[in-house]
Write a structure and sequence with these properties.
Layout lengths: L6 H16 E5 L5 H11 L5 H11 L5 E7 L2 E10 L1 E3 L7 E9 L8 H15 L4 E5 L2 H4 L5 E2 L5 E3 L7 E5 L4 H4 L2 E4 L3 H4 L3
Parallel strand pairs: 5-6, 8-10
Antiparallel strand pairs: 1-2, 2-3, 3-5, 4-10, 6-9, 7-9
Helix pairs in contact: 2-3
This protein binds coenzyme A.
The site of coenzyme A has 16 residues, from β5, α4 and α5.
Length: about 190
């Protein structure tokens, strides 16, 4: 019997469909703060850096988009977008970085990360962002429309190559800008 035909496969698919219908996405509220910390501590275990990064960015008012995913009454995931600094001679540009995104280990692969990112990108569009960058697995982020940033002359401080990706929210912006993308100083601070 193939894995696809096995009864547990059908039951997993059904479970995932059930979870998808119960996911709600909304803006972060003050009561979510300890739950968001827990999401990142568990998603990135054993690294505490991502949970710390969220708190540093929130405390310095740089969390321009911060969304939680709830499954029934439980916070199961969180995504944050913060402004990037783009040194360019070609004029001003409002770019944000997607980081971090985390989903509780027991809730992964059920569409929660996808919903968070899709809603996050929409919120970024809504507040007038020109572009979004991300450092991560190209296989995952390409499904949202992210492409290799290096191909558009965008550099990063981490010497990342295909993992450094960009998505334009304002049509044509990637043809007009190039240069070094810097994340907020809180990213380095969170690593200490
Ligand atoms: C990455 C993460 C946010 C994705 O959220 P999720 O709810 O599990 O993902 P979704 O259900 O929306 O999407 C599932 C798909 O993503 C893929 N995927 C999940 N995590 C991935 C990862 N780290 N790298 C590449 N692909 C990944 C799965 O294989 C699956 O692929 P398929 O649709 O082809 O079967 C979540 O798995 C997580 O918190 N991981 C630990 C922390 C982390 O690595 N964060 C991202 C840092 S860049």
């Amino acid at each position: 019997m193939s894995a696809e035909a096995h009864p547990w496969h059908a039951s997993l698919k059904k479970q995932s469909r059930n979870v998808k219908s119960k996911i709600t996405i909304r803006r972060e509220m003050p009561e979510d703060i300890p739950l968001i910390r827990r999401v990142h501590e568990q998603a990135f275990h054993p690294s505490p850096n991502e949970a710390r990064l969220v708190e540093l960015l929130r405390d310095s008012n740089k969390a321009v988009v911060s969304l939680v995913a709830r499954v029934e009454d439980r916070v199961a995931g969180h995504v944050l977008f913060s402004p990037i600094l783009l040194e360019t001679d070609q004029g001003a540009c409002f770019g944000v970085g997607l980081a971090p995104v985390g989903v509780l280990p027991g809730c992964q692969n059920q569409g929660i990360g996808t919903r968070l990112i899709e809603h996050g990108l929409q919120a970024c569009r809504h507040i007038g962002c020109d572009l979004v960058v991300v450092l991560g697995n190209p296989k995952y982020y390409s499904r949202f429309g992210f492409v290799c940033a290096g191909e558009y002359g965008l550099e990063n401080e981490y010497n990342a190559e295909e993992e450094f990706m960009v998505m334009e929210l304002r049509a044509g912006i990637l043809r007009r800008i190039a240069g070094l993308v810097k994340y907020q100083p809180e990213f380095k601070e969170a690593e200490c």
